[in-house]
Amino acid sequence: MEFFVRRAYRGPVKAVILDWAGTSVDYGCCAPAEVFIKVFANHGVTLSTAQARAPMGLMKRDHIRQITQMAPVAEQWQSVLGRPPSEADVAQMYAEFIPLQLAILAGYADPIPGAVEFVNELHERGIKVGSTTGYNREMMLLLAAEAARRGYAPDEWVCATDVPAGRPYPWMMYANAMKLEAYPPESVVKIGDTLPDIEEGLNAGAWTVGVALTGNEIGLTEAQVEALPRGELAPRLEHVRQRLANAGAHAVVDGVWDCLEVIEDFGEELRRGEKP
After folding, report:
1. Which residues contact 136 (CB under 8 A, 6 or more apart)?
2. How many angstroms separate the CA atoms of 213 and 169, rounded?
3. C or N: which end of the chain has fewer Cβ atoms within 10 Å?
4. For residue range 175-200, what is the model confidence (pLDDT) as tens digits?
5. Is 159 helix (H, G, I), strand (E, B) or coil?
6. Are residues 25 and 147 in the same domain?
7. Which of 59, 77, 107 is at the close of a domain?
8. pLDDT digits (tens, 9 = 90+) for 106-148
């Protein structure tokens, strides 16, 4: 019997796949959290910000389902409505979520500092830029157009409703790779601010970078971060960095402005025959 060993890929990074809210636009990932709270409030259930944010990164319908499965939320639902939340309730709330999210998305399309420059630098180096998101296609048509008007425009985007399932499944990553003609998987880098982002990248066989400061885990706008009392940010940021690292991120940065050096480091690893 003969055994054949596949030679390790030793080429360059070919593509970088970014998340949207909290990674490349919408500092603090505020747009989705605001709407989740409102949707549940319309049914008489009060969500904490932490509860609304906990499943962030998932496709929005999956996100709503995960919230209903939290014991405190399910208990509230039972108390208010006299029955446990059902799949029909999830479908109803997702239907309500869509127009509410569309109504505010344009106000959350500003690129995070450094995002435009990062994409421009990647293009100058011949690296293609894709993106994945928990938003649906209707939302992304609006958000991508608004972000482009502000200077941020990846080469491709794929949303959860374009594929059989959203994060943590790797299908959006694979769809991006096909569109960008980026192969093998170890030539691709995934950047995101949530744990499902990291899982998505790992499941696709890509390098992964966690974004700690600007994303859902901290959950504050740039102005709110700057207004924090002295000494309060550092321990919170360290906690988030550790969570992203524990999820398997190959690197963790504060914001997209720190990612170019990481991409260069991954390139060096690839030249040595290393892989994710």
Report:
1. 59, 60, 98, 159, 160, 161
2. 25
3. N
4. 999 999 999 999 999 999 999 999 99
5. strand
6. yes
7. 107
8. 999 999 999 999 999 999 999 999 999 999 999 999 999 999 9
Instruction: Write out the DSSP string of 187-235.
Output: GEEEEESSHHHHHHHHHTT-EEEEE-SSSTTT---HHHHHHSPTTTHHH
Which tokens go with 44? 């008489």
| Confidence grade of residue 35 (pLDDT, cut at 50, 70, 90) | very high
CATH code of 121's domain: 3.40.50.1000
Known catalytic membership, residue 19: yes
Structure tokens at 152: 């941020």
Using CA atoms, how far apart are residues 113 and 242, in angstroms rounded to an integer? 23
Q: Is residue 190 among the annotated active site residues?
A: no
> Per the residue annotation, which of 14, 26, 60, 197 is the catalytic one?
60
* C-alpha neighbours within 13 Å on the C-beta side of residue 259: 33
Residue 120 lies in a domain: yes
167 pLDDT tier (thresholds 50, 70, 90): very high
Catalytic residue, from 19, 26, 62, 197: name it.
19
CB-based contact 206:276 (threshold 8 Å) = yes
What domain range is 74 assigned to?
Answer: 31-107
What is this structure's pTM?
0.92
